[in-house]
């Protein structure tokens, strides 16, 4: 069997367009996901049972159900309700891009909240005691000491989450979007060349994964160098 | 509430469970082969094991599922005429699903197993050897039981991800609960109801797994001292 390079070469603009869609979906969902994850993470370390349990329930349900079901609930499911169809949000909620971003952001916010909560809990107690000894208020302590320290230490785990999210964005192709996977499905449907189509997509994802891993390694060297083992 | 589709969806749920368990069984076998390769002293075998785990973990499950399902069908239909079978063969989505998920999660498990094997103190195997055990005995009596304990947390995670990934097999036509829910949703125009029901079923499945594996972890950790803070 011979790999048909010509078809792939001709479909390259489709793949590049798909790459841009994938990156757009990834960036938007990570941004909004992280934005929601920080308050959720803080709720997860709260000593008030009601606050803590609410955030716990949210992350438990989201992490316990498949991404595909969440996506379908938002994209197909919400249209069931007349109130949604007649609301001012309908133009957004009927768009596949918006629904995909929303579903991905909700999903990643749950996983990221748990990462942040774990990192907050692992704060060395000396840091907290020092902040208290300086007479910082609770808010100031969180803003200046706890969060900067916890977010840095969450970086290695967060890099895994980002790579998982990159892979998750491939589900967008199921709700009609032409991301990298969507481009591959289009090529396969047109030429019936499954190997060429999907292996090309796989190569794109592998390259993106390697680039992300490198970027996070650089970020870790920048922000976590104080935790690295001493070099002689 | 489910307009008579409840039984159909439960049927699909049974299929989902079968798919998840069978793929996990295959993934454990492939994961053990993968870790044997990666820890092998033979350079190119270790390289092969690393390649398997790195490439598979760097590509989305959905792409691999589509590749193996459509690609596998393509290969079978090219090879079949050569052995004198001329009808077009449709790949069974269940078998393709088990093969694909097993292959994907074998790579993730090989990573889990590798961490677990490396977590066993060297002295354990040496002590076994000092007792006069053969290397096979050391492996099965000393290494494997301890490896299981160390692998359970990672395994729990892999199992949960696999369970949730089974939903993707509906994309290539397996009539699991996701597929049945989509049919019911299209027929009744009540997608939210049915997808919510499926979400609840998945939540039950993951919750039960979590409890069972927590219990197992406790059983395997009997005799391990935990420091109290």
* CATH top-level class of chain A: Mainly Alpha
Instruction: Name the structural class of chain B.
Output: mainly alpha
Number of domains of chain A: 1
Kindly state the number of beta strands of chain A: 0
Report on this model:
Chain A is mainly alpha-helical and 232 residues long. Chain A has one domain (5-225): Orthogonal Bundle (MetI-like fold). Chain A has helices at residues 5-10, 12-44, 49-64, 67-77, 82-85, 90-93, 96-121, 125-133, 138-153, 155-168, 180-191, 194-223. In chain A, helix 3 (49-64) packs across helix 7 (96-121), helix 7 (96-121) packs across helix 9 and helix 7 packs antiparallel against helix 10. The model of chain A has no long low-confidence stretch (mean pLDDT 92). Chain B is mainly alpha-helical and 229 residues long. Chain B has one domain: MetI-like fold. Chain B has 8 helices and no strands. In chain B, helix 4 crosses helix 6 and helix 7 packs antiparallel against helix 8 (191-220). The mean pLDDT of chain B is 89. Chains A and B meet through helix 3, helix 4, helix 10, helix 11 and helix 12 of A and helix 3, helix 6, helix 7 and helix 8 of B.
Topology (elements, then pairings):
The complex is a heterodimer of chains A (232) and B (229).
Chain A: H1 5-10, H2 12-44, H3 49-64, H4 67-77, H5 82-85, H6 90-93, H7 96-121, H8 125-133, H9 138-153, H10 155-168, H11 180-191, H12 194-223
Helix pairs in contact in A: 2-3, 2-7, 2-11, 3-7, 4-7, 7-9, 7-10, 10-12, 11-12
Chain B: H1 6-38, H2 43-57, H3 61-79, H4 93-118, H5 122-130, H6 135-165, H7 177-188, H8 191-220
Quickly list its features.
heterodimer; A: 232 residues; MetI-like fold; flat; B: mainly alpha; AA_ABC_transptr_permease_3TM (chain B); cell inner membrane (chain B); cell membrane (chain B); amino-acid transport (chain B)
